[in-house]
Write a structure and sequence with these properties.
Blueprint: E1 2-6, E2 19-26, H1 32-45, E3 49-55, E4 61-68
Antiparallel strand pairs: 1-2, 2-4, 3-4
Length: 80
């Protein structure tokens, strides 16, 4: 199974910029049970949610998962 994190302006991004995306590709010869397990692990431990799934001609499956970006604000004054 191939995984790649989608980030940056040249790849798919939510217009609001509030989410980051993970695209997982499953080739036709790979086990669907293994794909389901990997999706469940990402969802449970990485806080990802399934956004879209597609099946292409030839049997390739692609899953888009997303999670909300956490913006952290500084609580201490800057050091001078």
């Amino acid at each position: 199974m191939m995984e790649k994190a989608v980030a940056g302006p040249e790849l798919y991004r939510d217009p609001s910029g509030a989410f980051e995306y993970l695209v997982m590709t499953v080739r036709p010869g790979q086990s669907l049970a293994e794909a389901r397990r990997s999706l469940a692990e990402h969802a449970e431990y990485g806080k990802w949610e399934l956004r879209r799934s597609r099946i292409y001609y030839g049997g390739v499956r692609r899953y888009w998962m997303r999670r909300r970006l956490m913006r952290v604000e500084r609580t201490l004054p800057p050091l001078l």
